[in-house]
Automatic annotation (TrEMBL):
The lineage of its organism: Eukaryota, Metazoa, Chordata, Craniata, Vertebrata. This is BTB domain containing 12. It comes from Mustela putorius furo (European domestic ferret). Keywords: DNA damage, DNA repair, Metal-binding, Zinc, Zinc-finger. It comes from the Eukaryota. GO terms for cellular component: Slx1-Slx4 complex.
């Protein structure tokens, strides 16, 4: 095809015949770079919560959530540690994630219904300060 003047990108199969040699090289390099980016994840994957399955953007937010979620779901620290270790030890399975295998392992603690409504927090009455006595003022 090149002898007849037809040039195609080997990656995306786009017709590059109208481009000069420099533009063709740039296009192919760009396609190769995009293919490499697709193969390697740009940011490391942070595992989701093994209890409720919530995804996270940073390890710090994950740690904070794990502690709160364990308290909310009434899960002890030992069981939480076991769940985190189980999650990091097992690679993602095609049939399910470690979060689902953990919830099956401990009897399905994963929530299935609608979340409970939060009741507004009770406000404490603040007593107005008493007028100080004359003796105290002196």
């Amino acid at each position: 095809l090149e002898e007849t003047g037809l040039f195609f990108c080997q990656i995306c199969q786009k017709n590059l015949s109208a481009m000069n040699l420099t533009r063709r090289e740039q296009h192919v390099n760009r396609c190769l770079d995009e293919a490499e980016k697709a193969l390697t994840p740009s940011t490391p994957q942070i595992p989701e919560c093994p209890i409720c399955g919530k995804p996270f953007l940073s390890p710090k937010s994950r740690m904070s959530h794990l502690k709160q979620c364990a308290v909310k779901m009434d899960i002890g620290p030992q069981l939480l540690l076991q769940a985190v270790r189980l999650q990091t030890a097992e690679p993602d399975e095609a049939s399910g994630t470690p979060a689902s295998s953990f919830s099956n392992h401990i009897g399905g603690l994963k929530r299935k219904g609608a979340p409970k409504r939060k009741e507004p927090q009770k406000k404490w009455k603040v007593n107005e300060p008493e007028v100080p006595s004359e003796d105290l003022l002196v």
